[in-house]
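HUMAN: Please help interpret these tokens:
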Amino acid sequence: MSVGERAKAKAEQVVGKTVRKAADAMHKETLAAKGAALEARGKMRGTKEQAKGSFKH
């Protein structure tokens, strides 16, 4: 997993978590769901890249 891909995955997780928490505080359910989806996508991207890297060796 390259450093750039790892950084993108982590950035998506952080941004998604921030959006989700802010939306929860403002009682914006739709925005909270979008933040949760972004966070999940970042986690999946990180997991996928991690698995891809382990099969190369």
Summary: The longest helix spans residues 29-56. The helical segments are 3-25, 29-56. The mean pLDDT is 89.
